[in-house]
Amino acid sequence: MKIMLNRLPAAIIMVAACALSTSAVAQNDSKRALAAKLAQIQLKADGPAMAEQLTGSAVQPILANWSQRLDETVPPARQKEVRDKLDVELKKFAESTHKAIEAQVGKSAEAALVPVFMEKLSEDEMKTIITYLESPVSAKFQSLGPDATNAWAKRIVDATKSSVESGVKSFDAAAGRIVGTASGGAAPAKK
Q1: Residue 114: inside a domain, yes or no?
Q2: Is 151 helix (H, G, I), strand (E, B) or coil?
Q3: I need a surface site. Which of 14, 77, 130, 138 has the fewest CB within 10 A?
Q4: Would you call 145 helix, strand, or coil by DSSP?
Q5: Which residues form the domain of 40?
Q6: Could you give the C-alpha distances from 105 to 25, 39, 64, in angstroms and in order?
Q7: Where is the signal peptide, in residue numbers (predicted)?
Q8: Other beta carbons within 10 Å of 62
Q9: 136 lies in a domain?
Q10: Which of 2, 3, 122, 101 has its CA nearest to residue 52?
Q11: What does the pLDDT look like over 45-55, one tens digit per residue?
């Protein structure tokens, strides 16, 4: 009996540890579920723009490279015809690249985002964020985005228009001198 009493506190400690461990696992599962939900919300909000941006970053260097090569190697009389053919091929590349990227955007969202959310956000913070993002006020705020951005951009354009136009004139003049000097004559007429 005495041996049994000596082991009883150890058994109680083990049961308590298991209970705490089970509670921690359940809490971790709850936090993981919230992180997964937040990842899905972010995927829905940002996934399409990310796919477009990544597709553009794949297409842009190809476009720049082949545009320059076309200008350097194809006679001016044939450039439009060649550009049209290149555009068809570039469109095929862009579409297939977009599909591949778009598929990975969806597949990788949870794997990439859940660990970040789990590490950087508490369960309560995730609940607060999700509650806000799913609220009507969040939807209303998001719907204002294009109008607000356009109003902001218009202000910037209006405020900088004269300095940008002046900069364009200065650049054109400098570029004309540089090209004129390099070609041994006058710069080509502005198109």
Answers
A1: yes
A2: helix
A3: 77
A4: helix
A5: 2-121
A6: 29, 11, 26
A7: 1-26
A8: 15
A9: no
A10: 101
A11: 999 999 999 99
Which residue do the tokens 């921690």 mark?
24
User: Which DSSP category does 134 fall into?
Assistant: T
**What pLDDT, in 10s, does the model give residues 76-105?**
898 899 899 999 999 999 999 999 999 999
Q: Rounded to an integer, what distance in angstroms lies between the CA atom of residue 181 and that of residue 174? A: 11
Cβ atoms 31, 118 nearer than 8 A: yes
Examine residue 148 and state whether it is found in any structural domain, yes or no: no
Angle among Cα 172, 186, 68 to the nearest 5 degrees reads 60
Cβ–Cβ < 8 Å for 179, 187: yes
What is 35-103 written as a DSSP string?
A: HHHHHHHHHHHHHHHHHHHHHHHHHHHHHHHHHHHHHHHS-GGGHHHHHHHHHHHHHHHHHHHHHHHHH
Domains of the chain: total: 1
* Position 126 in a domain: no
CA distance linking residue 141 with residue 110, whole number of Å: 25
pTM: 0.65
**Alpha-carbon gap, residue 160 to 171, rounded angstroms:** 16
Return the number of other C-beta atoms located less than 10 Å from residue 31's C-beta.
Answer: 19
d(CA 104, CA 58): 15
